[in-house]
Amino acid sequence: MDKALEKFGNDIAIAFSGAEDVALIEYAHLTGRPYRVFSLDTGRLNPETYQFFDTVEKHYGIRIEYMFPDAVEVQALVRTKGLFSFYEDGHQECCRVRKVRPLRRALKGLRAWITGQRKDQSPGTRSEIPVVQVDPVFEGLDGGAGSLVKWNPVANVEGHDIWNFLHAMNVPVNSLHSKGYISIGCEPCTRSVLPGQHEREGRWWWEDAKAKECGLHKGNIKQEGGGENGKAAQSNGAATETDIFTSQNLVTLSRTGIENLAKLEDRKEPWIVVLYAPWCQFCQAMEASYDELADKLAGSGVKVGKFRADGEQKEFAQKELQLGSFPTILFFPKHSSQPIKYPTEKRDVNSLLAFVNALR
């Protein structure tokens, strides 16, 4: 980790929430090198966790950079589905609003991030995590696939060794640990575990133990099947996933809508359209950039749209819309019937804008 702090300087940050993460902060503090720490405040953490954050800040003389969910998105989720919908239809939607999207914003300003993942934390999803990897889900400062390095320096360290280090260094720990909580998340989704139970059994206990990831480390969950150039793929049946690309300045196209758009030879305005699947991690990674693109182009005369092209629409999209893999981005010029396919995997907002401006 010392090499990471030296190599990336101010463009790397430690993601902080639990015991492993405070061990990383202690190590970073011991190196004497400058370091940054960020954490996700979902608004639903235990009071003990907030007290823990405050204690850590005072102990190390640092300011944790807190990332909060978008208030409008939280209000919409609660208004339409209630406060505890995750008990009925799974935690992914709530975690996406409260954790994944804020994390995506945080990582957009970094070249690398440091996590406290361990292989023995969750044999179902973390047994193969490497110490250093190119982040398979999120984008970094430069945008596009491969723009973010992910360090997991305690990947090969066992839990009891982490705790031995914490006790030896006399560092702050969350008081919930003394009450039987080992893996700690949001209050409604975390409970204490009994002696002999695995630490992750206290998280989302009502769900399949093989998929206990909130989305922050979704790349740990193996996708079924394979895609072009190793991209994540899914069977032709549409998955039950929360939809993505949610800007109010973005048009959702139906099958009829995109067929009509493709047939027009003299459009009144140009369009840029993403062909996507909400379960695709590469589509999820570009969500913030594409939503920002829609907001920047609002009122400019360029329409921004999306078309869900998995499931029963996949064959049509492959034959008629140049779909090769997800996401595929098409630009429909104003005075031409032939769409132009976005040629690169660099999907940050500036690259997308440059593509649009060059063709509009």
Furnish the topology, listing elements before pairings.
Layout: H1 2-8, E1 12-15, H2 19-31, E2 37-40, H3 47-60, E3 65-67, H4 71-81, H5 86-89, H6 92-107, E4 112-114, E5 132-134, E6 149-151, H7 159-169, E7 251-252, H8 255-263, E8 271-276, H9 281-285, H10 287-297, E9 303-308, H11 314-320, E10 328-332, E11 340-341, H12 349-359
Parallel strand pairs: 1-2, 1-4, 2-3, 4-6, 7-9, 8-9
Antiparallel strand pairs: 5-6, 8-10, 10-11
Number of strands: 11
How many domains is the backbone divided into? 2
| Residue-averaged pLDDT | 86
Class from secondary-structure proportions: alpha/beta
Instruction: Kindly report how far apart the N and C termini lie.
Output: 46 Å
Strand line-up across the major sheet: 3-2-1-4-6-5
InterPro entries: PAPS/APS_Rdtase (IPR004511), PAPS_reduct_dom (IPR002500), Rossmann-like_a/b/a_fold (IPR014729), Thioredoxin-indep_APS_Rdtase (IPR004508), Thioredoxin-like_sf (IPR036249), Thioredoxin_domain (IPR013766)
Region (Disordered): 219-239
Organism: Malus baccata
Pfam family, one: PAPS_reduct
Q: Keywords for this structure?
A:
360 residues; alpha/beta; Rossmann fold; Glutaredoxin; 2 domains; 12 helices; oxidoreductase; iron; Thioredoxin domain-containing protein
Commentary on this structure:
The protein has 360 residues and is α/β, with parallel strands linked by helices. The chain contains twelve helices and eleven strands. The chain has helices at 2-8, 19-31, 47-60, 71-81, 86-89, 92-107, 159-169, 255-263, 281-285, 287-297, 314-320, 349-359, and strands spanning 12-15, 37-40, 65-67, 112-114, 132-134, 149-151, 251-252, 271-276, 303-308, 328-332, 340-341. The strands form two sheets. The protein has a six-stranded mixed beta sheet. A five-stranded mixed beta sheet has the order 7-9-8-10-11, sandwiched between helices. Helix 2 (19-31) crosses helix 7 (159-169) and helix 10 (287-297) packs across helix 12 (349-359).
